[in-house]
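User: I've been trying to design a sequence by hand for this structure and keep getting stuck. Would you show me what you'd pick, starting by listing the structure so we're on the same page?

Assistant: Good idea, let's start from the same input. This is the structure you sent:
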């Protein structure tokens, strides 16, 4: 058992050494990336863009104008195309037939469940 304990301790020390070596390599890589300008280190801490109230108001007005223009264009396209189909309603007799069929279907399903139980 003494041999296993010392082997385990030695493996842990080697692991710690390897881990510190990997951390040093990561640090070196990040330094080289930042020097090259291709690293994402500076981009990760970039603050969000803050816009004051006046430009935000102008942007909102411009967006509303775009939406209004798009709405007018779509209305013009609707008048040129064929009118929308008329919504069809179901007659009372057709509705009663569907309801009767549905009730019969549910009754049949419940009867099968009772037989199974």
């Amino acid at each position: 058992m003494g041999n296993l304990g010392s082997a385990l301790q030695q493996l842990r020390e080697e692991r710690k050494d390897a881990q510190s070596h990997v951390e040093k390599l990561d640090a070196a890589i990040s330094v080289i990336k930042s020097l090259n300008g291709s690293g994402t280190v500076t981009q990760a801490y970039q603050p969000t863009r803050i816009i004051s109230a006046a430009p935000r108001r102008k942007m909102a007005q411009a967006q509303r104008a775009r939406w209004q223009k798009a709405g007018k264009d779509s209305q013009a396209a609707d008048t040129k195309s064929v009118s929308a189909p008329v919504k069809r309603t179901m007659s009372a007799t057709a509705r009663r037939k569907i309801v009767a069929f549905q009730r019969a279907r549910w009754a049949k399903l419940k009867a099968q469940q009772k037989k199974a139980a």
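That's my pick for every position. To get oriented when you compare it with your attempt: Residues 44 and 50 are 17 Å apart (CA to CA). The first helix runs from residue 2 to 36.
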